[in-house]
Specification:
By secondary structure, this protein is of the alpha+beta class. It has helices spanning 19-34, 41-62, 106-121, 135-141, and strands at residues 9-13, 68-73, 76-85, 89-97, 124-130, 145-149, 154-159. The N and C termini lie far apart (39 Å).
Length: 168
């Protein structure tokens, strides 16, 4: 396993040229959850394409896109990290990695970078997660706690800087 402290990870702002990669990443992330539908490949691709377009438009309209970044490992695009920075909070809009890069500490490494930023600017880090999403266990291991239930599907989780924990 790679030493997480020396991972050659970089973040760079996404551009129009990254849209084919972002489409493929979205489809790869959704493929497993959609497997039960047993759709023909063409139908699966068409569905993922339309869902990606809707999600991407929503993100562009409702969040500041200055920090919609591509995660690169050794200069190769392997994921995305979309963050909206507010005065008291860093909201993780989306974090996704290609399947072959999951479970290698890369996501945790990205979170720790955000935690350092939040700590130095006295902000919290928040993320919405589906109740059944296996990533929820990772978020809890990293120190995220339930902030609120937003609806039957999503939870809002929050990480607080060390000095702020326990002040409630």
């Amino acid at each position: 396993m790679t030493d997480r402290a020396t991972l050659p990870l970089t973040l760079r702002r996404h551009s129009e040229a990254d849209l084919p990669f972002l489409r493929r990443l979205y489809a790869d992330v959704r493929r497993q959850e959609l497997a039960a539908a047993q759709w023909p490949e063409a139908q699966l691709q068409a569905f993922c394409e339309s869902q990606f377009e809707a999600q991407y438009r929503h993100y562009q309209q409702h969040y500041c896109s200055d920090r919609f970044d591509i995660i690169e490992l050794d200069g190769q695009a392997i994921g995305r990290l979309f963050v909206d920075a507010w005065s008291t909070e860093l909201r993780i809009v989306d974090i996704s990695l290609l399947p072959e890069y999951r479970g290698r500490g890369i996501g945790s490494h990205c979170f720790r970078r955000l935690f350092q930023e939040a700590q130095s600017s006295d902000r919290t880090v928040t993320i919405h997660v589906e109740r059944n999403n296996p990533a929820r266990k990772l978020y809890e291991r990293l120190g995220f706690r339930l902030k609120t239930e937003t609806n039957e599907i999503y939870l809002l989780m929050e990480w607080q800087p060390a000095h702020a924990r326990g002040k409630k």
